[in-house]
Amino acid sequence: MPGKNYSILSIPWWIYLLMSAVGCIIITTLIFSHNNAVRMNALYAPLINASVEVELNVTMAHLIVEEILNGDHFEESQVWDNYARANWYVEAMLNGNQKGEETILPMESERLRLIVKDLLKRLSEFQEISRERLRKRAISGPGTEIDQRYNRIFVIFLKEAKAVKKNLQHVMTEDMRQFRVTYFILIVTGVFLALIVAMTLYRLEGLRSKDFKRLQEANENLENEIEERIRAEQKLRDSRETLRDLTNQLQSIREEEKTRIAREVHDELGQMLTGLKMELSCLESDIKNDPDSLHERLEGMKRMVDTTINSVRRIATELRPQILDVCGLWEAIEWQAKDYQKRTGIECVLQQGKAEGSLPKKLSTALFRIFQETLTNVARHAKATRVNISFEIDAKQVQLKIHDNGVGIREERKLNPESLGLLGIQERANYWNGHAVITGVPNKGTTVALSIPLEQNEPTEQH
Ligand SMILES: Nc1ncnc2c1ncn2[C@@H]1O[C@H](COP(=O)(O)OP(=O)(O)OP(=O)(O)O)[C@@H](O)[C@H]1O
Ligand SMILES: [Mg+2]
């Protein structure tokens, strides 16, 4: 298909960009979630652990103080040790510190730091009241004023320590929520971009397969075209060969015609003229010897001259029927049909349709030659008893149809490149931009239908 371009679509550059973006987002999401998990684990787990430790140690210290006051064998130092540990954890929550494997990072939330600072104050207050109780054991027994203060502060401390733990959990949850939002945004963006990439690639694949199909079609068309060209070239070669044969045949026909004319002239005109010459010699001697027989001889000579004239006419007519030039094609056809019927015994039925307009001389000759060849074929091959001839001219075209009731031409005979008579018919029709359709029905006969356009008809080439 000339003039059409086909290209297999390539993946556009921005698809690669999007694919890289999706890759980056996936990697970022992974790094982000890993880092966040590590960070939250490192930050919150030790802090929560520390807040639990604070509560535990202070409760232990409270318990030991009670036991000592009840007279149980507990060392006071155990109380201070517990306070010291609680103290250490509270300080570590504020400023950060390390114990064994565990690293406590300082708190970031300002609000929490204030609460923890309060807790630290409460711890030293409770420590102070514990020391006072132990010092004044006699007046600090259960139900005393010191004992009540001691318990009140302890309850407040526990409340504050729980508040620290609760707030820590709250901050952690908040942090986690933020992490989840960011994580969600990253995942959604990644999925969205991946979807765009997938959809575009899918569409592109569709277009590519369409393009591929069209390319295949174009390729097939091209192959067909090439095959057609090869066939056309072969046809051209064949037709050239046929034309060569045709020319040779025409040449030999011309030669045969010349021989025939020479024979006719020799046999008929030569004999007649020799006869005339002999008659003239006799006339010469009769003028001297027998003048009475002169009249008879002159009559004989006139008859001889008449016969010669007829022979000359017949030979000339066979060469080119004069009637064609004088009266036109239809009369020439009528004359030829009559002559043909006389010679072959095949009945000719003529029918003339519209006769509006005249034909160029050369076209008349061509049609007449076609007509003659068709009649010759009927006589030679058809075994027919009748030929129907119809002829019609109007402003647009001339039509000549010759139908015989013979055996019917066989298809393979029509296609035979050696059928030069039929080829001549076709060539002549083509030359005048017309066409000749030859059809045969077995045992029903053959029809040769000619139609030549007359409007603006210039012959295709010079013959
Ligand atoms: N009217 C017809 N009826 C039956 N067969 C026919 C008729 N006209 C032609 N044919 C067949 O078609 C063949 C081709 O005809 P064509 O006129 O081309 O060649 P030809 O008559 O054999 O030889 P020439 O080249 O001398 O005309 C004939 O040999 C004959 O078999
Ligand atoms: Mg023939």
Description:
The protein has 463 residues and is of the alpha+beta class. It contains ten helices and seven strands. The protein has helices at 13-69, 76-95, 110-135, 145-289, 294-319, 322-326, 329-344, 361-382, 411-415, 420-431, and strands at 97-99, 102-104, 347-355, 386-393, 397-404, 435-441, 445-453. Helix 8 (361-382) links the parallel strand 3 and strand 4 (386-393). The longest helix is centred in the middle third of the chain and has 145 residues, at 145-289. The protein is rod-shaped. The two termini are 36 Å apart.
Distance between the termini: 36 Å
Q: What's the mean pLDDT score?
A: 86
Query: Could you state the order of secondary-structure elements as H and E?
Result: HHEEHHHHHEHEEHHEE
CATH class of the largest domain equals Mainly Alpha
Tell me which ligands are bound: adenosine-5'-triphosphate, magnesium ion
Low-confidence stretches: none
Shape: rod-shaped
Largest sheet: 5 strands, mixed
Major sheet: order of its strands? Answer: 3-4-5-7-6
DSSP strand content? 5-15%
Annotated CATH architecture of the largest domain: Up-down Bundle
CATH topology category name of the largest domain: Four Helix Bundle (Hemerythrin (Met), subunit A)
Number of helices: 10
Secondary structure tally: strands: 7
Radius of gyration: 65 Å
Amount of helix: over 70%
Overall structural domain count: 2
The secondary structure category is alpha+beta
